[in-house]
Design a protein that fits this description.
4-stranded mixed β-sheet, mainly beta, 216 residues, 5-stranded mixed β-sheet
Amino acid sequence: MKSCILRPAYHALWLLLAAPACMAAPLKLHLVDAHGKTLQGAVITLRSTDATRPLAAPVRATMDQVDLKFSPPLLVIPAGSSVNFPNSDKVRHQVYSFSEARRFSLPLYSGTPYPPVEFEQSGIVTLGCNIHDQMRAYLYVVEAQYFGRSNAEGAWREDVQPGEYLVQVWYPLARENKPVIHQKLTVTTGGEVKLQLATPLKLRPVSQVPVNWDAY
């Protein structure tokens, strides 16, 4: 395992593992914070610097409302995707977002009266309910070839095609809505890399954490 402590943003990180194959091979990233503690639930994206490479295709996803909570509290979707927002509660909700990446409002409703909401622009979308202030969730809209979340061991695995990538890591509970890692990564074959944050995380206030938060 190679270990790299990530310094200030935009510092280049190169993963150079010798192998001639051009086929996708297993890549494992292991994330830890500045104190060496496992960083689970982080969102990881790899976007090729080759503009001709196709991005991940849009999907149709669902974020429900159950027991006065959004379910799930976090969705990661490719740009161009659409999301249904059914209300499975016995009370009505009014879902909204003022986020720059996607502003919308679904007036007071129950069931599924509205068509899916489309998310064309990448970025972080914070969701709330105008009726129930404790309800909060996040959508992370990505433009990348590969994306996922770190598991309980802080690991993320994916079969990755060789090439140069911009790797970004966003931690949903970080106070600032920006990547905690923003680096270049050159992959020639699969392998394992340990990534450690250079500075301690500053976390969101409890009021901004979904009450049903699922780390992964």
